[in-house]
Write a structure and sequence with these properties.
Order of helices and strands: EHEEHHEEE
Helix content: 10-25%
Strand content: 25-35%
Distance between the termini: 4 Å
Shape: elongated
Largest sheet: 4 strands, antiparallel
Number of helices: 3
Number of strands: 6
Radius of gyration: 13 Å
Structural class: alpha+beta
Strand order of the largest sheet: 2-3-5-4
Length: 102
């Protein structure tokens, strides 16, 4: 087993408007991307679990031509809300880093 952070070239989060966060998981090469994709460890359900959401609230897709996985979720607080601790959404990727990939 290898953690996703060790396999991905980049894992990032950012705002997708004031009400959503988006995650990009990018890989250096096709072999690593296919390994992660085939494992099923990074999925709509896995992301929903990590962020305590119902799976139907996670937008999820594979970008084969870019060796990337993308997901979007509702922000816990809208951008600029007094309870929003990450206005740009750039610190929300951390729960994805330790997903175990066989």
């Amino acid at each position: 087993m290898t953690q996703l952070a060790e396999l991905a070239r980049l894992i990032r989060s950012k705002n997708a408007g004031p009400f959503e966060l988006t995650f990009d998981i990018m890989f250096e090469d096709a072999a690593t991307y296919e390994r992660v994709k085939r494992s099923g460890a990074v999925s709509r359900e896995a992301i929903a679990t990590r962020y305590n959401l119902p799976a139907n609230e996670v937008k999820f897709f594979y970008c084969d031509n870019a060796y990337a996985i993308k997901a979007s979720i509702p922000r816990p607080f809208f951008q600029g809300d007094l309870l929003d601790s990450d206005g740009h959404g750039g610190q929300q990727y951390a729960p994805l880093m330790d997903i175990e990939i066989p």
